[in-house]
Amino acid sequence: MVTSAQCLKRYGDPNLTETQSKWFELWIVPDTIRTAFAHVRFSALGTIGFPKKIFVNKDFRPILEKSLNNVIIRGLQAEMKTWDGVFIIRQKRGLKSMSLHSWAVACDINASENPLGKTPKISKAFAQCFIDAGCEWGGNWQGSRVDGMHFQLASLPS
Fold this sequence. Notes:
- By secondary structure, this protein is an alpha+beta fold.
- The protein has helices spanning 4-11, 17-23, 31-36, 61-73, 124-133; strands at residues 24-28, 41-42, 47-48, 53-57, 82-83, 106-108, 135-137, 150-153.
């Protein structure tokens, strides 16, 4: 599991412009993905339609794109109801360490249906689309930290 300490060591302080300009990019989401997920509610704006641009870590962007394409190829688009974001600098809920969202190497999907500590409602087939692309799924975590909405980089590149 990738930790916030590992992200801090690799990427630096996410609050710094230097970190963001070196490691993050504004990804223009391809039309094929936006069309396939046109039904999705973009929770940050409260609008219907997948975002046109996503501020994401350069290491995570190809994995996120592959994950979303896997969902499309496997015909599971209808399972995604909300897109709940990638980048937000914050601590992990209920902990002192920083969330991996702080380095834009994690995303949340269907957040309202998959609260922290509850049995995930995301299907194993849907989650597998992200796992096969290089993500770790919080729905596989144990105990009170199971986090069915959460997908993150499975490992840091060397």
